[in-house]
Each structure stands twice: as structure tokens, then as C-alpha cells.
Amino acid sequence: MIIEIMKKGKGVNKVTIVIPVYNEKNTLLEIIKKVQQVELDKIKKEIILVDDYSTDGTREIYKGISNKDIVIILKDKNEGKGAALRTGFKKASGNIIIIQDADLEYDPNEYPILLEPILTDKADVVYGSRFLGARPHRVLYFWHYAANKILTLLSNIFSNMTWKRAIKFLEKKYLIILS
Fold this sequence. Notes:
By secondary structure, the protein is an alpha/beta fold. It is 34% helix and 18% strand. Strands 4-3-2-5-1-6 form a six-stranded mixed β-sheet, with helices on both faces.
């Protein structure tokens, strides 16, 4: 998931971090802690957790969360990540919205880097990408992107697995990478 920041209005005084959650009992508290620890100078933070009907015990964790800056939304049925995000966007009260996955794939400590182009009026929307490195870029490295897509396709063809199935498989297996 690409971290996305969307500017809403002039004068930034609050950032809303929308975290779609689905079966993230192992990482939920850690991502909340990391998001809370990020320093954004004088900008307030609002955290919105949208649980898309988790069934792994994640919902039990919410009972222990009592922070006025954290909004918890529990959906009645699983509707997918896009629906969870739309639900979070409707509740957002910040001038900027950041999408943060609950699986720890993206580091909240990079928020200041992502916010910089918006705060300096160089951008209205910022997309973070694991392919481009830590600083703002305008150029997509085409060959890195193309190679990633080809390797993913070949992996799926030869293993007869999508990444979702592969991750479920790897949760029960050891993985050794030789480099």
C-alpha cells in the first residue's frame, strides 16, 4: 500500500492518520505506538482505526485502548480495504490525511518527509513508495518497477499462488533467503 497524503484546505493544524485494520492482532498495538511517537512539531494528530470485521482477536485489543485522539470504528461486515478507507475519510477532521497500513510495512517516522512538500506548498498530494527511496522524487524508476512486476508475475506462475495465499503459507513455514 502506498502511503497517501491528501491536503484539505489551507493552514495545516491537524493530520488524520487513517489505519485500515483487518486481522492485525500481532501488529496493531505496535503501529499505534509508533504513530503516537512521531513528532510533527505543532501539528496535532488524530488516529482513526477502521476495523473491517477482523476475526482473529483484533477486536478484543480495542477494549484496552482509551485515548481521546484515537477513533475506533468497527464495521459490521468485511467490505474490503477501499470501503474501510472511505469510512475513515468521512470521520477525518484533519487538514491532511495519511493512510497507514497496520502491518508495519511503512515507517511512521517518515511522516515528516512526506509532509514536507505539502507544508512548503510544493505539492497537494504526496505518494510514498518503497521503490523510490526516502526523499521526494518526480521520476519513477521504470526499470525497477517493471522488474518488480515481472518477478511477481513469474513467482505467481511458478508457485501457483497469489501473494495473499503465499503469506498465509509462509505464516506456517520458515523462509530462507540466500543472497
